[in-house]
Amino acid sequence: MKKSASCLIALLVFSCCVYAELQEEKWKTIFLKYLPEDSSKESVEMREYFKKAPVEGIYPFGAGICEALKEGQHKKDILEKSYYHFWGVPASDAMYKASIEVICPEYKARR
């Protein structure tokens, strides 16, 4: 009985890890979709930078947006105070859109 319970727990932990990785990859795909697609040097460089960036390096910023929304902050405050100065407006806006689409869709109405 103990062995089967241990196996079940291990399976649940593994499943959660796989789900989290899939969600992170989905978030990055959606994030890349929302980046500007024009041919300006800045946009091209930004897209290339984020395509190469490991998901574990940028996903926490998307999760942070959802955490701030959960705490009652508004989009404008979150982005202007914590994101625009670091990532710039286009990337920050793309992060926000991807986050409310993939990580915390319950906050879509707060746009």
Could you explain how this protein is built, in words?
It comes from Nitrosococcus oceani C-27. This protein is mainly α. The protein has one domain. It has 5 helices and no strands.
Low-confidence stretches: none
N to C succession of SSEs: HHHHH
Number of strands: 0
Q: What helical percentage do the residues reach?
A: over 70%
What best-fitting shape do the alpha-carbon axes yield?
globular
- Rounded Rg: 17 Å
User: Could you tell me the mean pLDDT?
Assistant: 88
Distance between the termini: 50 Å
Structural class: mainly alpha
- For this structure, the quaternary state is single chain
The major pleated sheet works out as: none
Protein name: DUF732 domain-containing protein
Keywords: Signal
Summary?
With 111 residues, the protein is mostly helical.
Q: What secondary-structure arrangement, pairings included, does this model have?
A:
Layout: H1 2-34, H2 41-52, H3 55-70, H4 75-87, H5 89-103
Helix pairs in contact: 1-3, 1-5, 3-5, 4-5
